[in-house]
Amino acid sequence: QKEVEQDPGPLSVPEGAIVSLNCTYSNSAFQYFMWYRQYSRKGPELLMYTYSSGNKEDGRFTAQVDKSSKYISLFIRDSQPSDSATYLCAMTAGNTPLVFGKGTRLSVIA
Amino acid sequence: NAGVTQTPKFQVLKTGQSMTLQCAQDMNHNSMYWYRQDPGMGLRLIYYSASEGTTDKGEVPNGYNVSRLNKREFSLRLESAAPSQTSVYFCASPERVSGKAFFGQGTRLTVV
């Protein structure tokens, strides 16, 4: 079993839809959870960051962490064509290298 | 604020040739990483350096060497390139403890 599992998609939604992206993990030592967004032919950019369990909201984006279930989610409200990208979850125990999911490719259709 | 800078952006090598990928960060971070990204495989860690003077193997180190030249610079060397090393290479530098990593724009390498 991989340490971090993420459905690669692709996921295609109409503009304005709510998007839900998820990852599961196996290492209970992970405490820091991140979502990165990667546009085609660009480097990953940090989108959301959460420490331990709970929710974090930033504009149209909400990140959720459920450590008891080893499950993290990213929600995108009122999705826009500019949200079309690959979304990667990443996590670390702290002072150790980030472990990434394989990424989910999202297309938002106008 | 440059963040993480990688050179070159593109490179084509013939099998057996060598090359060095350069990475520099201006955030005064202790740690630096090298990842490769392949279709369907996500980001896989090649080598990392937790501090100046130290390096450690990651998930896929075979065929690569690294040098942590100073706190700012971390280079990745392919001594004898193989077609299996065709990939996009990313350098990243994380904040201490939180692990928030900042990435360069990548080097697209093709080995023919």
Provide a descriptive summary of the structure in words:
The complex is a heterodimer of chains A (about 110) and B (about 110). Chain A is about 0% helix and about 55% strand. Chain A is mainly β. In chain A, strands 2, 4, 5, 9, 10 and 11 form a six-stranded mixed beta sheet that branches. Chain B is about 0% helix and about 50% strand. In chain B, strands 2, 4, 5, 6, 9, 10 and 11 form a seven-stranded mixed beta sheet that branches. In chain B, strand 5 (about 40-50) and strand 6 (about 55) form a beta hairpin. The interface between A and B is medium-sized, with 26 and 26 residues.
Question: Nutshell version of this structure?
Answer:
The complex is a heterodimer of chains A (110) and B (112). Chain A has 110 residues and is mainly β. Chain A contains no helices and 11 strands.
Write the H/E string of chain B, N to C. EEEEEEEEEEE
Structural class of chain B: mainly beta
Count of strand segments of chain A:
11
In whole angstroms, how far apart are the ends of chain B?
A: 36 Å
Sheet having the most strands of chain A: 6 strands, mixed
Q: How large, in whole angstroms, is the Cα Rg of chain B?
A: 13 Å
Biggest interchain interface, per-side counts? A-B, 26 and 26 residues
**Rg over CA atoms of chain A:** 13 Å
Helix content of chain B: under 10%
% residues in beta strands of chain A: over 45%
Topology of chain A as a string of helices (H) and strands (E): EEEEEEEEEEE
Shape of chain B: globular
**Which range best describes the helical content of chain A: under 10%, 10-25%, 25-40%, 40-55%, 55-70% or over 70%?**
under 10%
What labels would you give this structure?
heterodimer; A: 110 residues; mainly beta; six-stranded mixed beta sheet; five-stranded antiparallel beta sheet; B: 112 residues; 0% helix
